[in-house]
Design a protein that fits this description.
Thrombin, subunit H, alpha+beta, about 160 residues, 6 strands, single chain, globular
Amino acid sequence: MSEKKTTEQTKPKATTEPKGTERRVCRRFKVPGATVSIALGKILPKEKEKDVEWDEEFCPLLDISCGGIKCSSKKFPAINSDIIIKILIPGERTPLTLTGEVRWLSTKDDKETCKVGVQFNPYGEGEGKNYPGLLVKLMELEHKFASAESDITKYEIDS
């Protein structure tokens, strides 16, 4: 006999957060001039990224956080697909190569490009995880670039 699901089980759970509430834990910031290369549907080989065949290179990086990126792309990756991201930051010697999963896509009127939201895989040791040193580097970049975007100059301090 098959069990019938009750209406309660099939309804999505309601949230108490107002629409538009920011749920991200990591602070997003922009890095002027940064670009990304993407390899769609792939996992980073153990032999390093030199063996990766990039599907698209020099995509504009729109914003970044320790948890993921938003970039512009001419490719339209599948939602929930694996992706390798190589981030090129002006003034940095080596690019940052991370693995993640495509979480969302957004297109506008032109339909030739899309915005791609990628969530990075967890940091740690082991297969499928990003090297923990990359998290440290992203935190340094956040400190450097997010500080420049802060609104602290808008406020005056009474003496």
